[in-house]
Amino acid sequence: MKRVTAIAAALFVAALVALTINVSAQDFNPQEKTYLTFSAPVQLTAAALTLGRTNGAALTGVNLVLSNPSGDGQTYVVRFSGSGVIGGSLPDGKYTLSLSRSAIKAASDGQALTGTSTFTFLRLFGDSNGDGGVTTLDYSAFRQAYGTKTGDPAYSMMFDYNADGGITTYDYSMFIQRYGTSAS
């Protein structure tokens, strides 16, 4: 009976307590980072994660890169890479990120968690406030960043479509293509 209690405690302690996508305005777009935070150290590999489109369309050329920069086994960073990634970010669309708990093991005793958690999120270049549309509010924010480059106080990575370090006419053209649209 004690062993069962210990396993249950380990599974409870190693629960996923937070999924954070784009934690600040500087991270919102285009170089998306997703943070998975557990309440206790776990062993996690990219095989535990599945990324897909909510409409079921194929998602090609996108790889998930998983890291635990602090080495604590609790906070993992997921980044996107591959030929389907634009400037470090996913193409515009709605996505699901599924976490197969059976592929996650509690660091304390190696016991696998159970079940699957699925999270839905959207990515729309130019949507600076995350409301699902590119509006006049976003245009105002873009104007403040236009013409700046990395190191300038007004530079905002979320408007650097191709992640070249500057908010240029190219980024403006990508913004204008999306102006007035919403994620669907």
What features would you describe in this structure?
With about 180 residues, the protein is an alpha+beta fold. The protein folds into two domains: about 1-125, Immunoglobulin-like (Sandwich), CATH 2.60.40; about 125-180, Orthogonal Bundle (Type 1 dockerin domain), CATH 1.10.1330.10. It contains four helices and nine strands; from the N terminus they run αβαββββββββαα. It has helices spanning about 1-15, 25-30, 135-145, 170-180, and strands at about 15-20, 35-40, 40-45, 50-55, 65, 75-80, 95-100, 105, 115-125. The protein has a four-stranded antiparallel β-sheet with strand order 1-2-6-5, with no helix packed on it. It has a three-stranded antiparallel β-sheet with strand order 4-7-9, with no helix packed on it. It has a two-stranded antiparallel sheet with strand order 3-8. Strand 5 and strand 6 (about 75-80) form a beta hairpin. The termini are far apart. Mean pLDDT is about 80; it is low at about 1-15 and about 25-30.
Topology:
Elements (H helix, E strand, L loop, with lengths): L1 H12 L2 E6 L3 H4 L4 E6 L3 E2 L5 E5 L9 E5 L7 E7 L11 E8 L4 E2 L9 E8 L12 H10 L23 H10 L6
Antiparallel strand pairs: 1-2, 2-6, 3-8, 4-7, 5-6, 7-9
